[in-house]
Design brief:
Helix content is about 55%, strand content about 10%. With about 210 residues, the chain is of the alpha/beta class. It has two domains: about 1-15 and about 90-200, Rossmann fold; about 15-85. Strands 3-2-1-4-5 form a five-stranded parallel β-sheet, sandwiched between helices. Helix 11 links the parallel strand 4 and strand 5 (about 185). The chain is globular. The relative contact order is 0.16. This is Haloacid dehalogenase. It comes from Roseateles aquatilis. It holds the Pfam family Hydrolase.
Length: about 210
């Protein structure tokens, strides 16, 4: 079984409501307000941000588009985009899980919706090549989850059949898409519950 990790919300912190409340306190006084603003800013990872995720628009173009669409000042949008790398802090529990899986001899890959600038940042600051045999960033392949194309491309990249992988992702539409394509997929919530599930599947000792 090859184990495939999503990144945002799984290996690296990604929680837009609290992120926006932290970096945009004048617009998002709390997480409730942050959640509402996130719907307009990230558009459920479609639209302007979806194109950024897919590498079809660069950061300046994305900032322009969000500003034009929302009326928010462009410099404020750029400030949010520049703060994303600090939001993508390592989730220590998941990193420990990865080390444990590797110690058990499992093959690990990643499949992440990630714009190229943030993918570059993660590669520069974390030992991804030590943790994973290979991986796919949406921004580099011009496709993104939950589209079938990126799942098919990932299987080719991982040299695997759908039935041979277990995919951990925190976004339900991605899990639903993977499952429909025959992948073994599990909705990630915390490293602790993930470990319980991996033990249940016989991939880690109890």
């Amino acid at each position: 079984m090859k184990i495939v990790f999503d990144f945002g919300g799984v290996l690296f912190r990604w929680h837009p409501p609290s992120f926006l409340a932290r970096v945009w306190p004048h617009r998002a006084a709390d997480e409730t307000a942050g959640a509402a603003i996130a719907k307009d800013f990230f558009q459920a990872y479609t639209g302007d941000w979806g194109a950024f995720d897919q590498g079809l628009a660069d950061a300046p173009t994305t900032a322009d588009r969000i500003a034009q669409r929302t009326g928010w000042p462009r410099e404020e949008i750029v400030a949010v985009m520049d703060a994303v790398p600090s939001e993508l802090a390592l989730i220590d529990g998941t990193a420990a899980l990865i080390r444990e899986l590797k110690a058990q001899g499992h093959t690990l890959h990643f499949l992440s919706n990630m714009p190229e600038p943030y993918a570059d940042h993660l590669e520069q600051h974390h030992p991804l090549h030590e943790w994973f045999v290979s991986g796919v960033f949406s921004g580099r392949v011009k496709q993104s989850k939950p589209a079938r194309e990126i799942f098919d491309l990932a299987l080719e990249h991982f040299d695997a059949e759908a039935s041979e992988v277990l995919f951990l992702d925190d976004y339900p539409p991605n899990i639903e898409a993977a499952t429909a394509l025959g992948w073994n997929a599990w909705l990630f919530t915390t490293p602790e519950t993930a470990r319980v599930e991996l033990v249940r599947r016989g991939l880690l000792p109890g």
